[in-house]
Amino acid sequence: INTQVTHRVRERVTMARFIALWIGTLIQGDLESVNRIAEKYGFTNMGQVSALKHEEGSYLHNYQTCIWHINICTNVPFKVEWLQQQVLQRRVKRISRAGHISPIPMRRNNPVWNRLWYIQCSDSKACQSHMNIAAAWRRGYTGKGVVVSVLDDGIEREHPDLKPNYDPFASFDVNGQDQDRSSNSAVNYHGTQCAGVVAAAANSSRCTVGVSFHARIGGIRMLDGDVTDIVEAQSLSYSPRYIDVYLAGWGPKDDGATLDGPGPLTRLVLQNGVQTGRQGRGSIFVWPSGNGGERGDYCSCDGYSNSIYTVSISSSTQRGSQPDYLEPCPSTLATAYDNLITCDLQQSCSTAQSGTSLAASVAAGVIALTLEANPSLTWRDLQHIIVRTSKAHHLSAPDWRVNGAGYKVSHLYGFGLLDAESMVKEAERWKQVPSQHECAEEAAIQLSRLIHLGSALTSVHEATGCSGKALQHVAYVEHVVVRVTISHGRRGDLSITLTSPSGTTSQLLANRPLDNSTEGFQNWEFMTAHCWGEQAAGEWTLKIQDTPSQKRDGSKLGLLFLFWSLVIYGTAERPYPAHRERARSAEIPTDSDLSEEYNGPCDPECGDDGCEGPGPQQCVTCLHFFLKFKNNTRLCVSGCPTGFWGDRRRCKRCYASCESCTGSRNDQCTSCQPGHHLTEGTNTCTAICGENFYLDHDANMCRKCSENCLKCTSYSICTECKPHTSLQGNRCQRSCAAGFYHDPQEVACRPCHQACATCAGAGVEACNTCAEGYLMEEWRCVSSCSAGFYATEPNPEIADGCDASCLTCVGPSRWNCSSCSSGHSLQRGACVVNTECTDGRSAVIHVLFLTRLVHKFK
């Protein structure tokens, strides 16, 4: 139950990140007795957190009250198993602010359609993006019948692209505890952007088309207020029998120093979600891997993307290169693209520049297509399909390698780029994998010693895969979790690797230059998916390296205490038949002159017809593609290498200037060799962009300028116009008087919005300059500053955003606050963090004792 205090606080102990909210587990007591007890002690019963129940059948409750002395709590006349005060969590949205663009008429014969490069296909029906989203559409899958909910800052449900697919039953305002799930300020754009990528409607779209444009889309608003373990748990457990996919575009702070993850209730919700959600098939939780790459962050320090219950998604640029913000780690399952066109607030559009939350949104859409193809898939079935179908393609990484089961993996991209067509095809014929087993084995050695500079500590554990326990036995690996406890002077100086019995090495942790923490790791769980499909039994080797940084005295040795255990998740039986072990039915001739028939395992790239030996060059037929050499030999490969294209399973050479292609002609390129750019519309590679084209550096493409542009720097930014048109802002339009814009559909000049002095189109969002009495706030003209904005000096016609610590500010700078956000106090015009309890110890004393309240009181 949630309980709220109704009388004054007698003695309060404050701490900067603790709030007056509690959560606990009761061993016994029904709802009536709880209400009676709450009233007796001055509380109000606020209801259950979620539908979760305690293992013994009692409900999981939380308490909202102030911090009390020990003797206030010890007289409670019921048995408390666990009680914890809530802490404010710092959760950041994993995207940068998008660039605003004007509404786009989405017609396939419109040049803008080609800007949806991650979806659209060339005239030869081959998807340039390699994600094959349009190919999945052509098979009839558009997300129909699948429900996706975005856990974020709300979504603009009236946006023309989202309104047709908006689902109120998949939406809730956890911050306000009501049904209003809309974004309520100019800074809450993130959920709307993610929702647009997933399920923007296809017909009469204003901005874009969603990956699963017939899926139902909802919004759980939970980032627009205090975020606690309770808030996250309520969001992730909202309507689990109705919602199929939960998309979270946020996580702990990506600053290269934070070590954080879900609280105890959220961990329980995630576990319960995969067990009971979707009518027992398991809820699908999609998470971005993180945006802290530029700060040396590592996503194994994020307990959300590091969980076996989430699908952690990495990001790639269109050219297949690593974004600067990308965080590596072995828990990443797969990759999708970002830098996409999507929806924004005020019924506008945006070109989002970066962030793994966009890639996770693409993945959520692809997963919706897959669930439509087979609604009976379990959460583990889906992860198996992702592992089996993702491709390395053109993704550039120095650490691609093949694991012991034949899967190609990378710490940057997981198992590769999602392939929507392959996923729906696999789903169509999928048979449910065997039940999951969990095998926990503790390492026999506990170490406590000094490590010399540059040296490493190595511990080897001989795992049995719990072979003697039928319900725990794991023969074939899915996820591997390493729980470690380490005490060390500077956490950022440590790096950790795990090597499997098959020889696959996972970098569980890399050095983090900005992590100066002395707290080490307390039973932290590192997860790797890189051993997927390998054998569980054998030697697992944990290696810890101490590399002192300049911020630490290199003459001092690092005291390190280590305890670790291994948890292997997987199956006792092979999860699916191996085509490479197909038995031969032909009789073996007795003629001694004939060579002996090969009956051993085939290479994973061999087809169902078997092989003549173990290598990829000895297959009778190939599963995917083959390269043919001058000596008439063949080599089976999972995908055609750079410079080749697939023609009826054979890899053929592309034209000389093409890096990838759909045919051998010069106009069938899909990407170009270094020094060349792909020309939009002609699919040719050229060294210099021609007239009416501009160079899109991110995509390495020569793209067409808009219709009336003679020269441009982007599609919507013209620098020189064709005859009989003039430059209006950054668009070339037929000349109209000031205060009017040219309407190409009506072939007439129309008046601008009253807030605009000049404009490029209809609506307040199309203003180039503002009318008298209005000021420009981000991308729109307003009559007065919104909350969180102020009029700048010496340009009062422009509004700028206040500092994050301010709720409101007055200028002349963003730090001149007039009121403060939660957790801050106003002091001499500035908002400072509340720090009444500087070391936290006095508050912690009153919190931690409660976890030991397991006594039964009268």
From TrEMBL:
Checking PANTHER family in the record gives: PROPROTEIN CONVERTASE SUBTILISIN/KEXIN-RELATED, PROPROTEIN CONVERTASE SUBTILISIN_KEXIN TYPE 5
Instruction: Write down the Gene3D superfamilies for this protein, in alphabetical order.
Output: Galactose-binding domain-like (2.60.120.260), Hormone Receptor, Insulin-like Growth Factor Receptor 1, Chain A, domain 2 (2.10.220.10), Peptidase S8/S53 domain (3.40.50.200)
Q: Which GO terms describe its biological process?
A: peptide hormone processing
Q: What is this protein called?
A: Proprotein convertase subtilisin/kexin type 5a
Give UniProt keywords alphabetically: Cleavage on pair of basic residues, Disulfide bond, Glycoprotein, Hydrolase, Protease, Serine protease, Signal, Zymogen
Q: Which segments of the protein form a coiled coil according to its record?
A: none
- One term under GO cellular component: trans-Golgi network
Signal peptide location: none
